[in-house]
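haha ok so turns out i had the wrong file open the whole time. this is the CORRECT one, sorry everyone. sequence first:
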Amino acid sequence: MADYSIPELNNKTPLQEAKTPNMDFIAKNGVTGSVNPIPDGYEPGSDVANLSILGYDPEKYYTGRAPLEAASIGVDLFPEDIAFRCNLVTLGLKGLDFVMEDHSAGHISTEDASLLISNIGKELNTKDIIFHHGVSYRHLMVWKNGRDSLDLTPPHDILGQKIVDFLPKGEGSKELIRLMNDSQIILNNHEINKKREEKGLNPANSIWLWGQGKVPHLVSFEEKYHVSGAIISAVDLIKGMGLYAGLKVIDVPGATGYFDTNYEGKAQYAIEALKERDFVYLHVEAPDEAGHAGNVEMKVKAIEDFDSRVVGRIVKDMKQFGDYKILLLPDHATPISLRTHTGGAVPFAILSNSSVPDQGEEYNERLIEKGSLKFAKGHQLMDYFITEKLQ
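then structure:
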């Protein structure tokens, strides 16, 4: 949700441009500040950032993105397994070079994607390498006794760029490049892609492997903070994180991880969950997707949808619980100008039934400087939110 100033918005950020009365209410009536969810030396990914925001120090607990997604998909990993995120992507030609045209293959439907990944599995699975289908363009490959010290690049980091400079490097890279090349032969000849191109949709004409890692070991959220909890997201990464943390994963009908997600349903299910549990982690992906697309208009709309259809309902319905606290923040910035994630501080705001306002500001990136609280390490924010003191 966070961004940089954009000339076409009169040098405002999408957050500053968007109409966000409910997020502004939280900022004006609560405490505000900044937090850095990405430790030094870590790539600014949603995996590291959300792990950090949930209260887990990535320097202690992070083992890679794909193992977190494996848990959500229902893939059990053995200690010797290396899981890889497997995107279905669209490669295009620029002269004689392949470029990363679309990291999501036009946000391909789960139905089409599952058939494509199943077909890849039939052709490329071995006793050591297995493909598993996930949701939309997000899938998984497991390599038994594989290599995890590889240099791999997320596809959303190289949109519009030649892929030759970002192919896998390191021990085991030749095997990954072979799989990616073989997938192109399978996918280019598939009927689903022929139909997609006829409809003017981006074909899923290659896989892209990245985000490798081994199974993590997290202490449960309840053991860590002595509260029961749940997690709501359409993204396997976030769901898997919740499973490893012992949180109840709540599936919301119509939640897609895209602009058409069921915003109201997420808010409703979160409120219902709080009638039985102490804590809910509610995640919405849409503003991030707009950032990757470089679409200013859609990012502003996604922020406004989140504000009116999620935050407004939460603020209104939390009052029924008497004592309550709400924490609002993005996991990282995804600037329109870069179309990928960046590290650094993001703004947060906390509203409770007993909040004493500290700033009276609107909710946007200005709070990074003006907020009264600052956390250099991301996992400290959850410590503060739950316990109201640093541990």
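The chain has two domains: 7-62+219-387, 73-213.
again sry for the mixup
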